[in-house]
Amino acid sequence: MLYYLFDYIEKNFDLPGAGLFQYISFRAGAAAVLSLMITILFGKSLINYLRKKQVGEDIRDLGLEGQLQKKGTPTMGGLIILAAILIPTLLMARLDNVYVVLLIATTLWLGLIGFLDDYIKVFKKNKEGLAGRFKIVGQVTIGLIVGLTLYFNENVVIREVRPATNVSTLVIEPTEGTKLEYRDVKSTSTTVPFFKNNEFDYSDILPFLDKNYTWIVFTLIVILIITAVSNGANITDGIDGLAAGTSAIIGLTLAIFAYLSGRVDFSSYLNIMYIPNLGELVIFCTAFVGACLGFLWYNAYPAQVFMGDTGSLSLGGIIAVLALAVRKELMIPLLCGVFFGRKLISDCAGIVLQVHEKEIR
Hints:
Layout: H1 2-13, H2 24-52, H3 78-92, H4 98-122, H5 132-152, E1 158-163, E2 171-175, E3 178-185, E4 189-191, E5 199-201, H6 214-236, H7 242-261, H8 264-270, H9 281-299, H10 308-325, H11 332-335, H12 337-360
Antiparallel strand pairs: 1-3, 2-3, 4-5
């Protein structure tokens, strides 16, 4: 919102300094600072309110040392994370950007699902929370929306560079006696990490399938990624600082990718995919990182609050959509290894505990 306000002021009143809001780097820094301020200044008030309402964490006993000491720690702290992400984004980012709109929708949708789950657990005293099938339906729904938008929206393109073949090209620049043609094209290509010439097109997964049906394959993959990462982040919450700390690192990494891929000069120099309009995502990313770091002030050992499903489901979904937007989703096993490793350990511990209980009986 402030972008449009200061853009209007600069054009009509020529106010000195108003032009700063044209720069993504300035707005990204302002979003990070504002996000930190929101979490740190209002986090304590939220924690006190949750304690007053006796919104405590119910800990499943897996036999881990010090685990039961966390019982009663306030949960639903993800509310402050959501506020610290959304408020700076709404103030600093351009709201006509398709990537920003997708991230805001993902944050709100998964935040609502997580809030309903936490509300049922702590206020209705139902340990099961929201039924798993409703969670999955919600995650599949947002995955379907994101997948279809990324595939069909005309503003989601990549820029291809090749030798010019005619004079009707979009942009022509002389380079060492030759001319280059720049074309913005729809593509389902993504980046394969650690390889040269590392672009992979989802249309090649099923070569026997007509290209007109590529959207089905792409959308199914998007749904799978969002559901998996969202659930992986959800299982990570409950250990002091783990979910917020790892999410901040992942968010910073994806912010760097978004900045480089959103700049034609840097992407050309580094020989990476240039994605028009992607740079605006940096503002969302810095707000995301600021929210996670600010939450760590209260979530680091000894944790004063946990984010609950309200925060963890949203964080996972945000990371998944960010990775898809910057076309780095194949790096998710590396970026989110802690999420999936934690889930594996938890599942194994649960199995061992069940076997032990049967032996005792």
